[in-house]
Amino acid sequence: RFRENNSEEQLRIGIETICKLEFWSQYAPSNFENKLFLLNAEQYASLPNIYEAKTQYEASINSARDNGRLHEQGLAFELMGNFLSSVTSYEPSEAMKCWKNAYLCYLQWGAKEKAACLFKEHNLNVFDVDSCGNPLKHSRDVS
Q: CA angle, corner 90, sides to 88 and 95, nearest 5?
């Protein structure tokens, strides 16, 4: 399981917060929509509902990107990477790609220390990804 703490109090607080974000995102989606998706993803990850969690992480990433919230896009990538690394049905490269994307978002936003911590924590080789986090093809890889 991704989340081991089964506190009923934390679950109650999470549900209340989701309800608030649902209300706020109706009136200011550019401010709250990605946060709602991210909190939903974290809730699904704790159940665990792998498919819904991944879907909500991706929705949060896209909403943050579409609304110019680079730091929140980075956070969603980072948390999705943490989640995917805990799921045995996903390849480690899936989580690594998320962490690399988070690293690039944090750098673009100017959070150099956060990016450095992520780099060190996950032993990232960011020189093998493009600006979208996709693996670069090297001449040695072409047959």
A: 110
- In the predicted model, residues of the chain with pLDDT beneath 70 are 1-6, 126-143
Assigned token pair, 37: 């998706």
Taking only Cα atoms into account, the Rg of the chain, rounded to an integer number of angstroms, comes to 16
Q: How far apart are CA 37 and CA 59, in angstroms?
A: 6
DSSP string for the chain: -------HHHHHHHHHHHHHHHHHHHH-HHHHHHHHHHHHHHHHHHTT-HHHHHHHHHHHHHHHHHTT-HHHHHHHHHHHHHHHHH-TTS-HHHHHHHHHHHHHHHHHHT-HHHHHHHHHHTT--GGGB-TTSPBPPPGGG--
Q: What per-residue confidence (pLDDT) applies to 11?
A: 79
Q: What is the pLDDT of residue 92?
A: 85
Q: In angstroms, rounded to a whole number, what is the distance separating the alpha carbons of residues 113 and 7? A: 32
Does this model's pTM top 0.90?
A: no
* pLDDT value of position 130: 53
